[in-house]
């Protein structure tokens, strides 16, 4: 099942792929699905098809300085209030305490 995404100011295909697949180097999957010849040229407001991540049931993400679970959920799900999905998948006791370098499972 694929999803749709509307390009926002400052977006790149690399960042969009990182958001949806947890790996920016997967940008070519999005480019191919949308017939984008030049991956450096996308337009604000453009509707993109985001192909399904395949057989992956989840992704992983390494916590970076300044990250919060709300921001991570917003990055992967487009909605920060979905952070509880990450909390549950990782058995996090206190959602206000995550550590730089911590590997998180990001469920689909």
Automatic annotation (TrEMBL):
SUPFAM superfamilies: LysM domain. CDD domains: LysM (cd00118). InterPro entries: Bact_Kbp (IPR052196), LysM (IPR018392), LysM_dom_sf (IPR036779). Residues 3-50, 59-106 form the LysM domain. Gene3D superfamilies: LysM domain. PANTHER family: PHAGE-LIKE ELEMENT PBSX PROTEIN XKDP (PTHR34700:SF4), POTASSIUM BINDING PROTEIN KBP (PTHR34700). This is LysM domain-containing protein. It comes from Chlorogloeopsis fritschii PCC 6912.
